Amino acid sequence: MPTVGILRDPLFEALGRSFTENEFQELCFDFGIELDDVEEEEDKGTKTRGGAEGGAVEMVVSYKIEVPANRYDILCLEGMRRALRVFTGLDTPPVYRLTSPASLLSITVELPTGAIRPYVLCAVLRDCTFGTRAYNSFLDLQDRLHHNIARRRTLVAIGTHDLDTLTPPFRYTARPPADIHFTPLAQTREFTAEELFAFYNDSANNSPLKKFLPILEGSCRHLPLASRLCSSTSSR
After folding, report:
1. Predicted structure pTM score
2. Which of 6, 177, 179, 213 would be 194's cystine partner, CB 3.0–4.6 Å?
3. If we measure between CA atoms, which residue out of 13, 44, 64, 51 comes closest to residue 133?
């Protein structure tokens, strides 16, 4: 079963009480998960991923919890908090509704993608505001989905973008790496896809994305999502 790290104190705060380790073990057992380990680690939620290093380091307690492989909804603090609050009767199960906005967005899938990854799925989440901790948790969840259900990005690659900075309509296309220009997450300058590949491949940059480069290596075309006012928003 996958093991996820969940911060203890925010979880206890959401549940409205503190637990001894044995009490929390019992709650996990009743719910169908298992507390595997308790660790003290650096609080990644105090600075944005990819931000500048330095400053005081705050240590936090993290629960390493084994969860069923099909429970993608509890791979992060927010999902675990919601599930345990419903299980303990503090909340009722959420009801989600799909709504139609006044004007629909469109994305055009262009023919060159057919030989590489022919499918794209998009969704818009509106009225979302992220604090630093929630933003980092969101990215961690995305990484965990990449790791398991997406088979280390070989089946699916997920990209998240700020719609306020983009202008529809959108295009899903395939271009030579040298023709793709964008500013990636946590960087301050624009790269071509060729330059970014070399940047991530350089061990001196210590990028966690280096392990995914073989997926693209040797490909004469990469897959950007392009909006009307920018050359591309991502290389996936």
Report:
1. 0.80
2. 177
3. 44
